[in-house]
Amino acid sequence: MSVITTSVSGLSSILKSPGFRKRNTEQRVRFRLPESLKTVLLDFINRRNIKAYEELIYTIRDGDIQDSNLMQLLTEVQECISLMDKELKHFVEALLMLDWVHRNSEIVKKFQEFLLNLLSAHNYYTKSALEKLMPIFKSVGFEEEWTNGVSTKKEVFVFDHAHAVLRVLLQVMPMACDVLVQVVVKHFPYLRRSSHEHECFIYNMLKITEYQPKLRLEFLLIIFKRLVSLDVYAPKEEVLEQEEVEECFEMDVEEAEVNEEAAQSQRVGMKHPIANNLDISMVQVFMYLRSECHDGDGQLDWERTKRLYHDLVTVFEQVVLSTHATHHVQFLLFYICSFKVTLAETFLNFLWHKVVSPNVPSIVRQSAIMYMGSLLCRASYINISMLKASISEMSTWIHKYISSQDGLEYINSDVRVHCVFYTVCQTLFYVIAFRHCDLVHTKKNLTFLQSLNLTKMVTCRLNPLKVCLPVVAQNFAAVTRTYQLAYCYSVLQHNARYSMPVIHQDKGCAVTRESTLLDTFFPFDPFILCRSVNCSHNILFTTNWHLNLPLFLSYCCILSAGTFMPRLRSKEC
């Protein structure tokens, strides 16, 4: 069954006794099939010869099997499929662990035939068979990260062998799809595993959706959950601290210098290990969005884009929207909305529906309006008509809310009670201050701003300026005074004089002091992952997306002491 050869080299020293003789031994197991494989299996089942069965398993698992021997083994195994019930579990697992993906196409086809016959006769091995495929999808012996997210030919060759087997398996056994989802969740690389494992696994998960489209939504949910976990464990402050990158950039940075720095970052990667895993994983998703929504000539396939958009919005609603202050994952929605204005408008309508729906939890409504405001400010593909329509909807809702409170004798201005109202007000102030250049560019647009009755908003009894972030309130006050839309400084001065800390006492008599300011984040603030930026930058030149992310990162600065980030226009790209 197996032949073990041992070679002894070297002579013993005359200074040492024979009892301490040192040997350099080298053992090698050569694979050799038994005369009758079926006889060995039957003898084990009948408990006549267990040792031969065990030696067979060890030889298959540890032996050096050549292509000819492997082909012969798979051929003989086909005749024993009916015997391979749960009693021969260890023998089946040894066969499933064979290194077949690196072999020629004939062996791949033979293994595929064996696997299909095995699972058709004994479907309880389905989970084990799928689990043995997962390590192949993580890595195939190469540890270097891909250049620009493009897999190497050698790895694609091996991946394609595994996909060929999996494709036929899922076609013959549709119920295996449910098992596959469970196995993928179980074997998804851990957060701190190598970045190459992450990019290989996500690449192969997205590859599966090409021949099993019905799994795309579930796989996208799995991928986004992992991306959100990576995003949460890589706070922007930590990443910037390790990268030693200034948050504010000079406005006269040359584009050539920016591109050179971006290329250098692409080669080196992120220093923060989890941020690097997030970066390299998002490259694969960016590339998938691009390839899935466009044909070979780079033209947008509208039907495919709509289907993918609906899947992404479902994933966004279930995973991203309910997660507070993620920094990068949401840019995947930002990117696909850039493919066509209709998608951006639909996404804005989706967010606004969440905001005004009383059945949605308040925290989700707040998150939705923050996404809406940040998208209106950052996306250069949002035209002026869409901007005005969104502002008008927010203004109408705010005035209705104020009118509903004016009839009350007493108003509780607690931030927790009116959190959605205050967040909508702050978002409206933020959008007007950020994009005021577009909104006052013509007399017609200036008249539109005057019709919003901003004075009533800032002087109402709920006093929204009191809870707004100071930087938002100050910039909004400056814009409204310049164009005589409202005078906010008297309200700001009054709030500064009469501001009082808010203290709460729970049932356990514990006293907590809370801030009177809204807990706010801006979802589409600068994107700092170097590979994703560069990948998207390369993609952008083949699409109509007018937002150049490397320049976006370089021209923009984080909100700080009374300044807003300038909006990047298409002409600056």
Automatic annotation (TrEMBL):
Any single GO CC term annotated in Swiss-Prot or TrEMBL for this entry: nucleus
UniProt GO BP: transcription initiation at RNA polymerase I promoter
InterPro entries cross-referenced by the UniProt entry: RNA_pol_I_trans_ini_fac_RRN3 (IPR007991)
GO molecular function, one term: RNA polymerase I core binding
UniProt-listed Pfam families: RRN3
Family: Belongs to the RRN3 family.
Protein name: RNA polymerase I-specific transcription initiation factor RRN3
Species, as recorded: Cryptotermes secundus
